[in-house]
Structures are given as structure tokens and as C-alpha cells.
Amino acid sequence: MKVLAVVEDNADNRLLVRALLGHLYHVREYVNGSDALAAFGRGEVPDIVLMDISLPGISGLDVLLRMRADERLAELPVVALTAHAMDGDRAALLEAGFDEYVAKPIFDETVLLRAIERALRRVGG
């Protein structure tokens, strides 16, 4: 079973991801970017990451930039999970280096699964 890391400070959103995807992925939860980066640095590297953009401390974008600068994590697929759903937000996040984008709140498991599948295909996973 592939490992999915969800980096999300909202407990309800983490619970939703686990409920929607827990039967398909081993879900690891992180409440902030620092904890996720520390775990990844210890070798706990998942197959894919779902990353909230508005995290306490280090933003999701800053976490992504640190991951892309680390050769061990540079190719790891990362899907942005964000309430920022204004025109241009999707393009800006993809240009910043996210592999996919899903707007919150998440109502449809299919939308999330398709984004994950597209991101995994990009890296051959």
C-alpha cells in the first residue's frame, strides 16, 4: 500500500482525507510543515503528499520549496490543498512547483483521487 502524507493543520480536514483515502493509502498526518519536513528528513518519505497552503509557521509553499531543493524529495509528487480558489491561484501554485491542485472544502472523493493519480503518473508512480 502506498504511503500518503497529509500536511494539514485542520483536524477535520485530516479526518476527511483519512476517511476518503484510508482504504487505498497508508495515511500519515502532520499538523504543520516543520513536522512533515522533520519526518521526511528522518527517511519517512511518503509516495505522495497532500499539502495545505495555509499552515502555521512554515507555509505549504515554503515547505514545497524546501522539498524541491532537497535531492531526496525534489521529485516527490505534491498536491496543493487550499481554500484559495480565486482565478489565477491554481496556475500560480502549479507554476510554483505543485504537481496538482485541489480546492477545499473537498466534497468529492473522485476529484481528490484524480489529482493524486495525475500527480503520481507525472513521476512514474
UniProtKB/TrEMBL annotation:
Q: Answer yes or no on keyword Phosphoprotein.
A: yes
Coiled-coil intervals in this record?
none
**In terms of domain of life, where is this protein from?**
Bacteria
Q: Which InterPro entries match?
A: CheY-like_superfamily (IPR011006), Sig_transdc_resp-reg_receiver (IPR001789)
Does the record bear Phosphoprotein in its keywords?
Answer: yes
GO BP annotations of the record are: phosphorelay signal transduction system
Keywords recorded for this protein, A-Z: Phosphoprotein, Two-component regulatory system
State what protein this is by name.
Response regulator
**Which residues in this protein are found as 4-aspartylphosphate?**
D52
**What taxonomic lineage is listed for the species of origin?**
Bacteria, Pseudomonadati, Gemmatimonadota, Gemmatimonadia, Gemmatimonadales
Q: Which PROSITE patterns match?
A: RESPONSE_REGULATORY (PS50110)
Q: Pinpoint the Response regulatory domain residues.
A: 3-119
